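Our preliminary data section would be incomplete without showing what the modeling component actually yields. Below, a chain of 145 amino acids is followed by its predicted structure, encoded as tokens that our downstream tools consume directly.
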Amino acid sequence: MTVFSIQDVARRSGLSEPTLRYYEDIGLIGPVDRDESSGHRRFRERDLDELQALACLRAVGMSIEDMRTYQSNRTRGRSAAAEQRDLLLRHADRVEAEIAAQHARLAYLREKAALWDARERGDAEAEAEATRRSLEAAQRLEGAR
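Predicted structure:
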């Protein structure tokens, strides 16, 4: 049986050592086996698979509580498939809303830059148009919050 140190698992999973310890402390993973003589954590291949899944969920911004639900559903298998799907789709909807908000922020920044570009050039007509567009972008920005 292959075992990995916390350093190995951190490198392979992309999760930091403090994060791995925290996940064990809060019961998201583990308990992790310990070396009898040193007390150091010894992770197995199945631990690594689980941690890589958690690293992906963390990377997309999933909360600890939702990761806990995801882990619980994984152990239930097919009987939890609908719950698992719904959890992931709810999170996908949240990410989609965040993307829309970022697009609104980006549009506002670009319109404000266009306004200042027109102002620098002394183009009053372009500045007026950019001002109108930046106000529209600001309204979209308000709606994206």
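The two ends are 50 Å apart (CA to CA). The longest strand covers residues 41-44. Preliminary results of this kind motivate Aim 1 of the renewal.
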